[in-house]
Amino acid sequence: MTLINVLIAGLVLGGTYALVAMGLTLQYGIARIMNLAYGETIIAAAFAAYLLQGALGVNPLLGMLLVLPGGFVFGYIVYGLMMRPLVARSQDRGNLEIDSILATFGLLFVIQGVMLVIFGSNYMSYSFLNVPVTILGANVAANRLLAFVLALTIGLTLYLLLTRTRWGTALRAVAVAPQNAPLVGIDVNRTARFAFALGGALAAAGGVVISMYQTFTATSGVVFTMKALIVVIMGGVGNLLGALSAGLILGLVETGVASYIDPGLTLAATYAIFLAILLWRPQGLFGGAGR
Amino acid sequence: MTARTAIGLVAALAALAILAAAPFFLGAYGVGLLIGLSGYVTLASAWALFSGPTRYVSLATVAFFGIGAYTMAVLSETLPYPLVLAVAALIGLAVALVVGLSTLRLAGVYFVIFTFGLAELVRQLVTWYEVNVTGTLGRYIFMSFGPETIYWQLLALAALTLGLSWWIGRSRLGLALRIIGDDEVVASHCGINIARVKLALFALSAVIMTLVGAIQAPRWTYIEPGIVFNPTVSFLTLIMALLGGANRLWGPVLGAVPLFLLFEWLSANFPNHYSIILGLLFIAIVFVLPKGVLDFVEKAWGRGSSRARNKPDEAGLGELEAGR
Amino acid sequence: MTIFGGRVRLSALGLIAGALTLGAAAHAGAQDRDSVKIGYAVSKTGANAGGAAITTIPNYQLWLDDVKKNGGLELPDGSKLPVEVIEYDDRSSAEEVVRAVERLATQDEVDFILPPWGTGFNLAVAPLFDRYGYPQLAVSSVTDKAPEFVKRWKRSFWFLGGGADYTDALADVLKTEIEAGTINDKVAMVSVADGFGIDLVTAARESFADAGIEVVYDKTYPVGTTDYSPMINEASSSGADTFVAFSYPPDTFALTQQAQIADYNPKVLYLGVGTGFPVYGKNNGENAEGIMSLGGIDPNNEQNQVYRKRHEDLTGQGPDYWGSVITYASLQMLQEAIKRVGLDREGVAEELASGTFETVLGETKLEDNQLRKLWWVGQWQNGVFAGLAPADRPGASKPVLPRKPWQKQ
Fold first, then answer.
1. With b meaning 16 or more CB within 10 Å and e meaning fewer, what string describes B69-81?
2. Most buried of A176, A257, C35, C50, CB within 10 angstroms?
3. What percent of chain B has pLDDT over 90?
């Protein structure tokens, strides 16, 4: 496998990781909710895409127009019903972290249980856009390339919105100093709720794209949560570009290890590099929040 | 020793005796339940031993639990049983020291994720080693003793853990830990060697978890990484300890026992809706019992006990400062 | 250290306690009862749920439905007793499955226990089935150690063969093709780093060496790998005509997709668990043709076709082409054995070991407590996953090789 092949395959794989991680970095970095049910949102969206495609014959890309707002609304409701009271009663960030871990752990089971009742625990898989696209001599699956492009587009768009608009400044202010934000007229609750819902929409986008090429079951959400968490931490909590870069780096590492060392060590390498980064730069590769 | 602690000690010993005799009155299923219960009580108490006072939320439980179980699987044929336990404890200790030395400066969610990553890393490395070096993945444990023996060992370990936890809570070490948990700056001003205290507790809690894994492993006959490094163990331990209240001696016990029985009841009576009910209960617990069962019970039973609980802290702090 | 010191004395007490429970577990007579209790613990949630949901649970449902429609389980005197079912979710945890089986045996005092899903879990509960005297019809476990286990646990029955059975048969098929000049003698091989993958790949190395087949690429990947492009690319440039993957369903699906993307067309494509799933044939259509794997059926066995139809009608999904029909057949054997000797577990176990049964597989008889008449290699042919080896077994199909290159969809 030539170097260029490895690089392209790695970047495309990393695109999936980045796409999945950006929603979580918004939820954790800005809304300050450690959402353990994040992966379940992804799987729910994957099921929705699967259903739309299988039962109604809706192209998953069109389906995304439906699933994406669905993810937003779901995030909006979850924040309002479950997270808002927790935020209100917590005095410090540590308390909120523990509360949100516990509450979303419960939510994880509820969503998973509902999916199990509806769909059973079977493997789900369909194939869409599984056609080769040739880039610089390397064959890449169109559906995976789509994840990569989507990750780049969403990442850069949101980054521009966050840094160049008034609304984005408010989001960042809430991320950095939720106590002080009200002083300058920012409605912290509304802003955090919006960020959380946006994270839900991104999770839904990730779920739809992943369902095109990855086999999933009702219980496989936690795998995505953990991968996303690793990317988020590596990139720096709340840092969109950090999540994007960290996702791509992770993809490159995995493909590189699989090609040059041993496919058996890809996951070990993932965790090893992640642990190394944590020790070397606990604030993540790209530092602080809200950038 | 005050009269109160003496009474408490007698009551605890009586409870221990009753529990130890329980297998003679219960069937195999009862013993199975007790094994699961004592296993999780020990894990949750060991978890709280370190995480309660320091507020470090660890998901590495299963890393140590799995190391213990794996050591048992690898060595059970070649070494006498007590020696295998000792080796397991030593390996757990060594891993804990290495990990502790490198990570205890991490805080908050970084530590949470790090410990989770550690558990996965250990699992991947064990798998890789087995596949590439030994060429087999599954291992068999055939032991001559029955479940009752496993239970008694776990019960003894649980008692030992609670005893240690009680002793530490009253020693200068426990006091130091509480100060660290409240404020590390204050702690270092008091002259506490933060790193050493944390490391000692982390290692102690890790060794206990390793032993739980080693003792429980013979129950499953067949061991592979997917079975012993099951991340659910870490999550359940954490939830049980937090539910009961990780800062209290009896908190983890009061979290582990009802939760464990609840899981059992749910999976028997609602095998198809288990997850939904469990999840809803969880959410309810967070909203209704935010500070753990023990705190809730104490509040409901009046303020007398909570005043008594605050006293040793203040007294202890003075003592420590006087000592410096 | 008190824990260790007290252990010896305590274990003596434990022996007495164990003997007491054994005595209590002695079974009651078949008379004076109005139902037969059948229990099982299976993974409804967690990592094993996907496998259990295709091979095990639907067949339990189908069989229990059969029994119900039949008016209950028939006993030797011709009377019928309805079945009372007790099911637990083991949540894919070894400790849970052990406790659930203890509960079924000693608390619920069921008459028969159906086995859990998976090699590891069947081994975890085997000592308990043995101790409480239940016959264990372990279907979803592939193990070369079955003869040893049968010696250790007299009432255990193993239905799916061992790794070497599958890889020897595969090596035979390949050798024939090599001698015919269809393919070269090189194989590229990947395997999942889990019990199943490692058992098979270890056996395969030996089988291929014995057959004079050269393994030019041999790598193992961890469970949960999502990107297979490096492995496919390496295999593609290895010069082997044969690609073998001992994979799990998600890997099998992803490997198929990646091979299409990379336009990798080995003349023999052999993939692991999941190839025999109906959804695999459905998703890949024409492209599934010629792909090989473990298992298979005799496409002309009418009973099997009836079974497949009923399975789909009742559960809404087709059975897989490997373990499903075996699971169902094992239950038919249990039912028939009860009809012949009644509810006495000892007698049922003896009957299972020595009797000959008419099942959906045709005439079925266990040898040394193992089912040995199995399809070791199968291939998708005309929309059916047909059994190829053993080639001398009646109903065997002929291999169609080399497989055609991928069609553009």
1. bbbbbbbbeeeeb
2. C50
3. 25
